[in-house]
Every structure is written in structure tokens, then in C-alpha cells.
Amino acid sequence: MRGRGDRPLDRHVRAEQIVGHSSSKRPSVEPGEQAILYAAVWQALFGVVEIAGIPEHDPARERWAWRFPIRPLAVVPDLEGAPAVEAAGIFPQSIWRHSHIRLSAEQFSAGRELVERAAAPERPQELVARGYDAAADAFAAWQRQVKGSTRLERLDELLGLLPARPDVLELGSGAAVRSTRILAERARLVGVDISAEQVRRARERVPAAQFVHADLTELELEPATFDAVVAFYVLNHVPREQLAGLLRRIAAWLRRDGCLLATFGATDNPGWRGRWVGGVETFFSGYEPEVTLRLVREAGLDVVRGDLETIEEPNGPATFLWVLARRPE
After folding, report:
1. Burial (CB count <10 Å: 0-12, 13-18, 19+), residue 164
2. For residue range 268-289, what is the model confidence (pLDDT) as tens digits?
3. CA distance 49 to 76
4. Which of 254, 230, 228, 244 lies closest to 286, judged by CA?
5. Fewest CB within 10 angstroms: 44, 57, 160, 163, which?
6. Are 19 and 7 in contact (CB under 8 A)?
7. What is the CA radius of gyration of the chain?
8. CB 194 within 8 A of CB 214
9. pTM of the predicted model as reported, rounded to 2 decimal places
10. Exposed, middle or buried, 296 (CB in 10 Å: 0-12/13-18/19+)?
11. β partners of residue 306
């Protein structure tokens, strides 16, 4: 138990500050045992720790004279997101008089699972999916206000390079805006999107095409399946350390002489999380153009063209790297 009465724990928890635990009586704990941390005022579980040494007594202290070191294994960084103690079958009234109590095996297992789940950082892909689900209407309105994109002209150029009725994969197909509808008319289209709501809207709008609800960073497809892969304004949502692997898989999905047409972020961005369209949280990441172009080439694709384009979004100008690349014959 940590933080009582008029001294509650601060909402934000720093794992490096969790180094020991004090008790008024000699605690019956042994090094190597594990414990669950409980924030008393918050009535929440927020950590799993390992006992790192034997209890030691300080006769100079009148209260909390016994202390033993602990080492954090999993810590929930924000107590607002910490699981309630009752969720593990532990009731606050059984704890409040004690600095620590013994849990049953079932209680400890449930508490550890709750803490570990809450402590695990949310994957950027989950953040992006939830955002596009929640702000589908706001995003659709936002898209209609974007000016200056040459997406349709570049798509027309791409289709001129492909055989009649090509097989095309669109990554981040969204709710089937005009470019997706053109692909569905002129190609055999498979669209993939991480947002269930965007996929629902796309299926409703273009029932003739195939739309798959999936995370494109985990997508596994048969090799040499598509004449082209397109990805418009979506790859800047992918953690940049995953781009190299994704590009290698894209190259494998393409048939000989198949094409990739995609936009990428154009700045050195290790990863940004924050509020975006509709006030929802999202994630952006990317490399500078020369790094992205090198990754495309290292994936086994020949860069036909790579150029920067600045468009006017409702919240200001945004620059993207357009890449047209081809798998060698």
C-alpha cells in the first residue's frame, strides 16, 4: 500500500522512484518474491515489483522502522488509467489498516495481469485505428477541404503503366474516396484499412471491391499477387522503424514490372502522438526523403520518381514525398 490520507500518490508515477517499501512490523517477505502495488487514495493497482533484498530495521525510526528494497517489473505511469483494486477480487476495506497484506494466488494472478495490461504502451496502430473510428465524420469533412493534391493525376499516370484491369492493392483505403472508387472501376481492387468504421463505409460505398479490416504492418499476402500497390497519405501513420520491413513485403507482393505509388512523410519524425482531426489522438512518423528513397531501393524496387509536394490542409500546409517505384522485370 502506498499513499494514504492527506498524502495521496501523484497521478503520474515514475518507475525509477520505486525503490523500497516501509512497514511498522517486520514484513514476512523474501527476496525474489513478487508484490502488487496499491495506491490507497486512488483505490487502484499500479505496479508489479520484485522483492530485491531482506527487510532491514532502523531503530532510530519510531514509525515504519522496517524497510526492504523492491524492483519494479511493470508500472502504470498514469493512475487515471490504473485498474481498480476490486477488479482483482481485492476489497479496499481489507487493506486500509495495513502496509501490506498477503494475496491469494488467484488475486495475485488477476492483479498482475491487470497491471501488466494497463502498463503496456498502446501500439501506435491501435491509436490510429481508434481515431479513425471515432472521428470518421470529422475526417470526411476535413478531407473535403484539402487543396493542392495531385493524387488523381498521379493515379491516372499509374494506371497508364499497368495492364488492362490490373490487380491493385490499396493500403489505407479509408472510406473509399474518389481515388479508391476510380481504382474499383478500372482495376480489381483489394483495399486494406485498420479502421473498422472506415472499412464499413468503403464496403457500403463500393460493394464491388474487396475491403479488408487489417493492420497493414501485419499483413501477410501471397507473393507476386498484384500489378500495383498504392498507399495515399497513410504510411506516415506507420512507425518508421517498421517501414523497411513493410517495403520489402510490398516488393514481394508485386509481380514483375509491378508498381508502387505512395506518399510518405517528408520530415525526420521519430514518432509524434497528439490530438488531430476531431480532437482524437493519432500518431505520425517518418524519415527525411533521402532515407525513405534509400529504403525503397533496398527493398528491391527501382525508383522511377520521387518528388515533394506541399498541400493545403485545413490546419495549414503539409509536405509529402511522392514515390513511384517499379519492381524490376
Report:
1. exposed
2. 999 999 999 999 999 999 999 9
3. 12
4. 244
5. 160
6. no
7. 27
8. yes
9. 0.71
10. buried
11. 323
